[in-house]
Every structure is written in structure tokens, then in C-alpha cells.
Design brief:
Order of helices and strands: HHHHH
Shape: flat
Strand content: under 5%
Distance between the termini: 79 Å
Structural class: mainly alpha
Number of strands: 0
Radius of gyration: 26 Å
Number of helices: 5
């Protein structure tokens, strides 16, 4: 059977070449990034949109295969045990963290108002800007250390 030239895109070399090309364009081709950016955003949107259906279908198919098996009850019992153990573990960690962190939370109204004002003033900045979070932490720290 005749091999198509597009079969190269299925090899790991295509991925490596794409990564190297992206790095080179990112470093040396700053002027063409605004033209390429919409294509990348569309690609990432499509990728994000398709992840949930793929995962849901994989889970449904796995459960279906598990139920078709003669040893399904043994596997289901193990699955339920592991699920409950992890659920309890996550709950325990959450409770411990809340107990550890609760003394650090401000309880007086003046501090709560100051934190609220800082959070409202930081809402005009980008959500990825960590400067406002650092400012809030420093303000809380200075109030408790004074």
C-alpha cells in the first residue's frame, strides 16, 4: 500500500520539529506572533472542548467493559474501596488544612474591611497578577505582627 506524505505527521519527529519551530519563532520571530496567535487560540479552544467528551466516553466504555466481565463484582468492590479511601483522605487533608489555617484568618472587622478594600481595588487588574495577592498577604502579616 502506498504511504501518504501526511503519515509523517503521525510520527514523534513531527512533534519534535513543531516544538523546535515554536521555540525558534517565540525567540526570534516576535513580529509574526500576532498573526499566528489566533490560530493557536483556536487550536487550544478546540482541544479544550474535546477533552471532556473524550474523557466521558472513555470512562463510560471502561465501566461498560467492567460490567461485562465475570469478575466485575471483585473489580467494582476494589474500585469502590479505593474511591472511598481517597475521598476520606481528601476530606481529612482539607479538614487539617482548615484547622491549621484558621488561626491565620482575620477575625476583627477592621482587618476584614481592609482586605475587602484591597480585593476590590485589585479587581481592575488581571486575574493572573499576583501582586495584589502578595499585597494582601503582607498587609495581613503586618497587622498580626504589630
Amino acid at each position: 500500500m502506498k504511504k501518504l506524505k501526511a503519515d509523517f505527521l503521525l510520527t514523534p519527529w513531527a512533534t519534535i520539529i513543531g516544538m523546535v519551530t515554536g521555540i525558534i519563532i517565540g525567540i526570534y520571530g516576535q513580529q509574526i506572533i500576532p498573526y499566528i496567535k489566533p490560530v493557536g487560540e483556536i487550536y487550544l479552544s478546540i482541544l479544550q472542548m474535546s477533552v471532556i467528551p473524550i474523557m466521558a466516553s472513555a470512562i463510560v466504555m471502561s465501566i461498560g467493559k467492567l460490567l461485562m466481565s465475570e469478575e466485575a463484582s471483585r473489580y467494582l468492590a476494589k474500585l469502590i474501596r479505593v474511591f472511598v479511601i481517597f475521598l476520606l483522605g481528601v476530606s481529612l487533608v482539607s479538614i487539617l488544612i482548615s484547622i491549621i489555617v484558621s488561626p491565620l484568618i482575620a477575625s476583627d472587622n477592621e482587618t476584614k474591611k481592609a482586605i475587602g478594600k484591597m480585593m476590590l481595588s485589585s479587581s481592575t487588574t488581571s486575574s493572573t497578577d499576583t501582586t495584589s495577592s502578595i499585597t494582601v498577604i503582607k498587609e495581613i502579616d503586618s497587622r498580626y505582627n504589630n
